[in-house]
Each structure stands twice: as C-alpha cells, then as structure tokens.
Amino acid sequence: MMAGSHALIGSASWLYLAHGMGLPLFDPVALGLAVAGSLGPDIDHPKSWVGRRLKFISVPLSKLFGHRGLTHSIVAVAGCIAVLRWDGQQWHHTLPFVIGYASHLAADLITPAGLCLAWPLKRTFAFPLIRTGSFAEQALVTVVAGWLFAQALGSCG
Hints:
single chain, mainly alpha, about 60% helix, globular
C-alpha cells in the first residue's frame, strides 16, 4: 500500500482502539505515534516515504534484509515493544506506535506480495485482494478508514 493509505488506516485503527479503551481520541502525541508506526515498516525501502527521509537507515536495511523482510515481521513488532519498553509506564507511547505498525502489516497482507511474517523463515503470507496504488486500494482504504472513524466518533455526537 501507499504511504497515505498506511497513515490513514493507522490513525483510524488507533482512534477505533482508543475509543474502545476509553482513551482520549484526539491526543496529538498518540495520533502522531500511530501514524509514525504505520509508516515505520517501510523504512526498509529507500524509495518509500520514510525511506527517502531516513536513507542512512533505509539503505543498509534494504541491502541486509530487502523489502518486506525483517521490518514486516512479528520479530519487528516484538522489537518495537522491547525498544519502546512496554513496562506499564510507557504504554501511552508504545501502544499507539505498535497499533500503527500492526495496521501496516495487516494492510500489506492483502496485497499480492504479502509478508514474511515469520522472518527469518522465507514463508510468505498473503491474502491478495488489492494491488498497491490501484483504485481498489483507494476504495478499500476509504471504506475501512471511514468505518473505523465512524465507530470511534459515533458516541461523540
């Protein structure tokens, strides 16, 4: 999926879950962390939105692991949790980032390329529903994000 799609799905996912947990919906730090998390996995691709801005990280990651390898795996999610110290004290920073990150992986699972979720194992998982950059991606993202936003905001009116 494209960066804008990931950012929209990541922020909508966070709002939906924040609502369900009774957390403030429009906490700018949490929303920013969810968007950052939703873009994070593509740090392994030097031509991605985040990869172009952080080439000093993106290029070595790409050469070592390729695109949709390490950063698109359960290992990376566990690494995010460990680095951000999920210890009960940092959950307000960790949780939105990890939700955004996981939303990226879920979105990439529905593309034909799929993911190596169990990296370093080479097994690829995919539920090929849409092609990246297609009209179908835009339509699906609009529907899913709209539904998530509606669910989160439904009780605010």
